[in-house]
Design brief:
With 211 residues, this protein is of the alpha+beta class. It has one domain. Helices cover 32% and strands 19% of the residues. Strands 3-2-1-4-5-7-6-8 form an eight-stranded mixed β-sheet. It is globular and about 45 Å long. The chain starts with a helix and ends with a strand. Bound molecules: zinc ion (ZN). The site of zinc ion (ZN) has 5 residues, from strand 5. Its cofactor is Zn(2+). Pathway: Cell wall biogenesis; cell wall polysaccharide biosynthesis.
Length: 211
C-alpha cells in the first residue's frame, strides 16, 4: 500500500474503554442508515495499523453462500503471494453462475484480508461471505436485467470487485473499514431482513456511494 510507511509512525492505541462505545455488532442495518452512523474513526481506520499487521502471514477465510463453499486459505507469506493459494482464491471468487474463473486483483484480496484480520482483533472471526466476485459480462448483464444493482462497466468483470458481508457486522462499520484501506471504491448497500445488506469493494477509483 502506498501509505505503508505511515504505519511506522502510528500506533493502534486501542483500549477496552474506547471499544465499549462502538456499536460494532447487532445493530440493525436500517437503523445504521437512518442514524447515519459513522464507524468510530480511531478504531476502524486501517491507516492506523502498525507495520506488524502487514508483515504477518495472511490467511483469508471466505464462504460462497451461493455454492456452499467455504475455505481458509493461507495465500501470502514473507511478502509474496503464494501462487497455488492465489489460484484457489480466484476459483472461490469465480462467477458461480457463469462457471468461469478469472484473475482477481491481489489488491482486492489484500483489502478483504485486511478487513477480516482487522475485525478479528475484536473477536469477530466470521468468514467473509462472497456474494459476488468475478462476473462474466453475460452474468453482469443478467443481474442488470433482473434489477439487481450492477454497473454497466462493472469492475466485477475485471476481477477488481467483490460484494461482501461479515456476519453480525453492520454495513456502516464494514464499509467504513474497507474505505479506510484506500484501495478503491466502496458501495454501501443497506437492506432490511435478518441478513442485512452488503458492501461492494473494488480497486478502481476511490469513491463511495450508497446503493
Ligand atoms: Zn459489486
Amino acid at each position: 500500500m502506498a501509505t505503508r510507511r505511515t504505519f511506522l509512525s502510528k500506533t493502534l492505541g486501542l483500549t477496552a474503554a474506547s471499544f465499549i462505545g462502538a456499536p460494532l455488532v447487532g445493530l440493525a442495518p436500517a437503523r445504521a442508515a437512518q442514524d447515519n452512523l459513522q464507524p468510530p474513526p480511531d478504531i476502524f481506520d486501517a491507516q492506523a495499523l502498525d507495520l506488524e499487521f502487514w508483515v504477518k502471514p495472511r490467511t483469508l477465510t471466505v464462504t460462497r453462500p451461493q455454492s456452499g463453499e467455504k475455505a481458509s486459505v493461507l495465500y501470502w507469506r514473507d511478502g509474496e503471494v503464494i501462487d497455488s493459494a492465489y489460484e484457489q482464491l480466484c476459483h472461490l471468487l469465480r462467477d458461480v453462475n457463469g462457471k468461469e474463473t478469472a484473475p482477481i486483483d491481489p489488491k482486492l484480496l489484500e483489502t478483504l484480508w485486511g478487513a477480516q484480520a482487522f475485525v478479528a482483533r475484536y473477536g469477530i472471526d466470521s468468514p467473509i461471505e462472497i456474494l459476488s466476485g468475478y462476473r462474466t459480462p453475460a452474468s453482469n448483464q443478467r443481474l442488470r436485467e433482473q434489477g439487481i444493482p450492477a454497473a454497466r462497466q462493472s469492475l466485477h468483470m475485471e476481477g477488481k470487485a467483490a460484494d461482501v458481508r461479515i456476519a453480525n457486522l453492520n454495513e456502516e462499520v464494514l464499509g467504513g473499514l474497507v474505505k479506510s484501506f484506500r484501495q478503491g471504491g466502496v458501495g454501501f448497500y443497506y437492506r432490511g431482513g435478518p441478513r442485512g445488506g452488503w458492501i461492494h469493494a473494488d480497486t478502481g477509483l476511490k469513491r463511495t456511494w450508497k446503493g
